[in-house]
Design a protein that fits this description.
The complex is a heterotrimer.
Chain A (H helix, E strand, L loop, with lengths): L22 E10 L2 E11 L4 E5 L6 H9 L6 E6 L2 E2 L10 E4 L11 H10 L9 H14 L15 H13 L5 E5 L7 H18 L2 E6 L2 H7 L2 E6 L2 E6 L1 H6 L4 H7 L1
Parallel strand pairs in A: 3-8, 3-9, 6-7, 7-8
Antiparallel strand pairs in A: 1-2, 1-4, 4-5, 9-10
Helix pairs in contact in A: 2-3, 2-4, 3-4
Chain B lengths: L9 H30 L3 H10 L1 H34 L5 H8 L7 H12 L6 H6 L8 H12 L1 H14 L2 H8 L4 H30 L2 H7 L9 H10 L3 H28 L9
Helix pairs in contact in B: 1-13, 2-13, 3-7, 3-8, 3-10, 3-12, 5-7, 5-11, 7-10, 7-11, 8-10, 9-10, 10-13, 12-13
Chain C lengths: L15 H27 L4 H8 L2 H34 L5 H8 L1 H4 L2 H12 L6 H6 L8 H26 L3 H8 L4 H30 L18 H10 L3 H32 L2
Helix pairs in contact in C: 1-12, 2-12, 3-8, 3-10, 6-8, 8-10, 9-10, 10-12, 11-12
Classes of the chains: A alpha/beta, B mainly alpha, C mainly alpha.
């Protein structure tokens, strides 16, 4: 398990060469008590791809995402980021950013402090200067189109604004891989659409590899380069939206997208 | 399992548990144990004699009597208040609830003081009472009043949040089916609040029997007549009859342990029907 | 929940008049009028007497002890109460249920019993007192004894206030902190602790308010020397025994005012809590 040489930007912590943020999942299995959440799942995602994990509740899509993040460990199988095996690595050393379903913002901190959190908790030796952190926060606020809201508290923001802050916070450490768990679930249709476009733009601009979980087919098909359809812990099909629509691989896929 | 970073290292966990257990052992269990040790210092025979002493007996009876009067009264009040507050809307509700909780923030000594100020020799109605040879302070009525004051909120504050959360739908349904107010209360409301009521009565009783500061002020400390068990404990202690004091105290400990056991049982088996307040 | 929001007080449910009337009557008789008596009596001999009684050097010393010890004890309880709540909510271990049941012991145990038990335990000959007096820090009959007794009394207030808040914390913010690179300790200090801070503050205020007015558990272990180890409630009783009703009432007034201020602060904290939570 060799580590690739670190290539950190001014504030990054990832350990992947900036060209390869491909993801390979090899025969990963996970169960909760007797319930098999994932059964020997394998898939490969290319660097820079935007992938959707789509499926009904209980299909294992969130479990898979959390395993990619390091918030769960699989019982068998491996996960590779580039040519580095990360199966047992801590979330903070995988070079990922995670956006939670309910934003998980720190209610007692301002927006700016939330975004800066990942930078503020770094070890002294690696931590950027106060100035660098402040300007990074500004940069991120502009990226997610919330300039000037740094001093507000999460409770003073709308749902859509909170989600943007959550995104900015996840991006602060310059991750190469962005993981999102039903990021737009609790928002209304118009806000959802705005955020989807914003997310895709940021993905393209930063050259990230992004994986997001959703149960909304329209969203998956509208945003992703490829969609992985999960059902009961297995991947039924992993293709581009067009391919899936034209050639559904199984009965389940056919009825799900109907 | 949850990721390793979301849990404390095993060693830290063990340390924290040990620290918590140690604190509880030292701060809570040791004092409890001390009562039992001191009470039995001279053997079971001495303990039995202390309990059987006429003054001790009288204090036990007095304690039971005061509780038997105060607890039912405050229970009825608590139910009435909870009914009014949870089933109706009216202005000033928050103020009413705040007033009901007032006795909790008043020092027990002040709780007793207020009744001395009204009924005592120099109180508002003191002279009036003296003329008619009616004794409130330094007699049973005073003890009951002081106990009523300090145990005032116990039943109400157990019931109010629960009944508010339960809403009015059940009662309104009963009404549409022709039940009277009393029938509705008895057959519909009461079963829903059984355990919370029991819980509140339990706490009310524990406090009523164990109250010290308030009754100390209104009591007069007349042995055999106006000493409740806690006061008797104090009297014996101040007399240096330590073993006797701890013997009576051990009975109160028993009360506390039974209260705790019942409380835990209620909490464990009927958590959803308690809307526990604390 | 299917509910029709009623705009006016009218509810088809019967009993408003009866229950509300009973509530207000009982409340006034047992709580409001007696409390009014304190305020009225304290100023009955004129503002000068009130001031000299309420602010005499002896009274000031008593306040300092009662409130100072209550603050110290409440602060200690914040630390250990948080520890105990943490252990009860987050970990599983043998005897956890028993530990949880024990926490309520100070609620259930009569204060006089706690008082003599603590005194026996921390006296120079007592199990724990031995250790401290050898180290030159006697506990019984000194202000330290008051702090220890108040720590005993106040523990459940902090634990039971923090426990539910800890239990309801979502794991998402902790996971977020993990993905952002925080160590477990950093997560605790920066994410978890601030989230339970309002509950801690509430627990502190409750323990403080209770401790300041506490009598039974303190009166035996305190030295009761005027100006040195005399708690405020004792001063009230002393005035009463001298038939100085106005003086007693004056001190009671000060204590009531401070209690009410703490209550108001508590309400403000609840508002802050609501404002901050998204």
């Amino acid at each position: 398990m060799r580590s690739n040489p670190r290539s950190s930007g001014a504030t990054g912590t990832n350990s992947l060469p900036s060209t390869d943020s491909s993801i390979r999942v090899e025969s990963v299995s996970k169960s909760f008590s007797a319930y098999p959440a994932l059964a020997h799942v394998s898939l490969t995602m290319r660097s820079g791809e935007f992938v959707a994990l789509l499926g009904p509740s209980g299909s294992g899509k969130t479990t898979l995402l959390r395993i990619l993040a390091g918030l769960e460990t699989p019982e068998s199988g491996d996960v590779w980021f580039g040519d580095r095996q990360v199966t047992k690595d801590a979330p903070s050393s995988r070079g990922i950013g995670f956006v939670f379903q309910h934003y998980a913002l720190f209610g007692h901190m301002t927006v700016a402090d939330n975004i800066a959190f990942g930078l503020n908790v770094m070890k002294r030796s690696a931590r950027p200067s106060r100035e660098a952190i402040r300007s990074r926060v500004q940069e991120l606020l502009e990226l997610v189109q919330l300039p000037g809201l740094g001093k507000r508290y999460p409770s003073q923001l709308s749902g859509g604004q909170r989600q943007r802050v959550a995104l900015a916070r996840a991006l602060a450490r310059e991750p190469r891989i962005l993981l999102l768990d039903e990021p737009f679930g609790a928002l209304d249709a118009k806000v959802r659409r705005e955020l989807r476009d914003a997310l895709r733009n940021i993905h393209d601009e930063l050259g990230l590899t992004s994986i997001f979980v959703t149960h909304d087919q329209e969203e998956a098909f509208g945003l992703a380069d490829r969609v992985a359809l999960l059902n009961r812990g297995r991947i039924e099909q992993f293709d581009s939206p067009e391919e899936i629509a034209q050639n559904p691989a199984t009965q389940f896929v056919e009825s799900f997208i109907a | 399992m949850t990721a390793a970073g979301l849990r404390e290292p095993k060693a830290v966990k063990a340390l924290l548990i040990a620290a918590a257990v140690a604190y509880v052992l030292i701060m809570l269990v040791l004092p409890l144990g001390t009562v039992l040790i001191e009470a039995l210092k001279e053997g079971w025979a001495a303990w039995w004699t202390s309990i059987g002493d006429p003054d001790a007996r009288a204090s036990i009876e007095l304690t039971l009597l005061v509780a038997a009067i105060a607890v039912p009264l405050n229970t009825i009040f608590g139910v009435a208040a909870a009914w009014a507050i949870s089933k109706f809307d009216f202005p000033g509700k928050a103020v009413l609830v705040a007033f009901i909780e007032l006795p909790f923030s008043v020092s027990p000594v002040v709780s007793g003081l207020v009744f001395v100020l009204i009924f005592g020799a120099q109180g508002w109605v003191g002279p009036w009472l003296a003329d008619r040879d009616i004794h409130i302070i330094f007699a049973l009525p005073g003890l009951v009043l002081a106990t009523l004051f300090v145990t005032f909120p116990f039943v109400a504050r157990q019931l109010i949040p629960l009944m508010t959360a339960q809403g009015r739908a059940d009662e309104e349904a009963a009404l549409t089916l022709g039940a009277s107010g009393w029938q509705t209360f008895w057959h519909v409301t009461l079963p829903n609040i059984r355990f919370a009521l029991l819980y509140g009565v339990l706490l009310c009783n524990a406090r009523a029997m164990g109250e010290f500061g308030a009754v100390s002020v209104v009591s007069g400390h007349i042995r055999g007549k106006t000493n409740t068990m806690p006061l008797q404990v104090e009297a014996l202690y101040n007399d240096y009859s330590f073993v006797a004091a701890f013997a009576v105290a051990s009975l109160l400990c028993l009360l506390a342990i039974v209260t705790l056991a019942l409380k835990s049982a209620l909490e464990w088996r009927h958590r959803d029907q308690l809307a526990a307040v604390h | 929940m299917p509910g029709v929001k009623r705009r006016r007080n009218a509810s088809p449910l019967p009993g408003l008049g009866l229950t509300l009337g009973t509530t207000i009557l009982w409340l006034s008789l047992i709580v409001l009028i007696p409390l009014a008596a304190v305020f009225l009596k304290s100023v009955s001999d004129g503002p000068q007497t009130f001031w000299s009684a309420a602010m005499s050097p002896r009274a000031i010393a008593a306040y300092r002890l009662s409130f100072g010890a209550a603050a110290l004890a409440a602060a200690a309880n914040c630390v250990f109460g948080l520890l105990i709540a943490w252990v009860l909510v987050r970990y599983r271990f043998v005897g956890k249920r028993l530990l949880s049941a024990l926490i309520d012991l100070p609620f259930a145990l009569p204060t006089a019993v706690a008082g003599i038990a603590l005194t026996a335990l921390y006296a120079d000959t007592g199990l724990l007192g031995r250790i401290f007096s050898k180290a030159g820090l006697p506990i019984a009959y000194t202000p330290s004894g008051v702090v220890v007794a108040l720590a005993f009394i106040g523990l459940p207030f902090v634990v039971r206030t923090v426990e539910p808040v800890l239990a309801e914390l979502s794991s998402e913010p902790e996971e977020a902190a993990l993905t952002l690179g925080a160590t477990r300790l950093q997560t605790f200090l920066r994410v978890i602790l601030p989230a339970v801070a309002p509950a801690l503050a509430t627990g502190f205020a409750l323990a403080f308010a209770r401790g300041a007015g506490e009598y039974g558990s303190v009166i035996f272990i305190a030295g009761n020397m005027p100006f040195r180890s005399e708690i405020a409630p004792l001063l009230i009783i002393t005035h009463l025994e001298e038939y100085n009703y106005a003086g007693a009432a004056a001190i009671a007034c000060v204590m009531l005012l401070i209690s009410f201020t703490v209550l108001l602060a508590l309400n403000a904290i609840q508002h802050w809590r609501q404002r901050r939570s998204a």
